[in-house]
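Reminder to self: tokens first, then the designed residues, so the page reads top to bottom the way the pipeline ran.
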């Protein structure tokens, strides 16, 4: 039986934490812990966010991390990505919606993040990430080029 906190919410479940951590990877360049599991977008041209199921309900991965890993009180607040990376589940803080939007535009102005473009390539539902050189080199050594399918 899962335990509950003083507000009646379920507390951290080891199985859920294990599932969550299996979907995270550390980025040594940025220091971000990036979500590599399922992703979702809001309406319109919005950024990608991690998606995680917990106790039969969908959670944004960064909100789940803020609540159950970092112990932040997020009720009635938004969870801000201090690094500007919406897939990061590490650099998080709970802020009001107004503060979150103000900091977003400051990050756009200083070039930490780019404003979402109005036009772009057709969205096939799969996010595109540039593969770091070191990762590509490691991958190519592990899986040399071949005409045969890898699996």
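Designed residues (151 positions):
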């Amino acid at each position: 039986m899962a335990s509950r906190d003083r507000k009646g919410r379920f507390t951290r479940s080891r199985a859920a934490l294990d599932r969550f951590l299996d979907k995270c990877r550390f980025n040594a360049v940025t220091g971000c812990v990036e979500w590599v599991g399922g992703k979702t977008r809001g309406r319109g041209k919005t950024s990608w966010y991690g998606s995680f199921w917990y106790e039969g309900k969908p959670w944004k991965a960064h909100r789940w991390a803020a609540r159950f890993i970092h112990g932040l009180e997020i009720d009635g607040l938004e969870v801000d990505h201090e690094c500007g990376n919406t897939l990061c589940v590490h650099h998080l803080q709970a802020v009001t919606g107004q503060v979150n939007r103000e900091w977003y535009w400051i990050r756009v102005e200083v070039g930490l993040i780019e404003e979402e473009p109005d036009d772009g390539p057709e969205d096939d539902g799969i996010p595109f990430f540039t593969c770091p050189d070191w990762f590509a080199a490691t991958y190519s050594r592990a899986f040399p080029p071949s005409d045969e399918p890898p699996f």
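DSSP finds four helices and seven strands in the chain.
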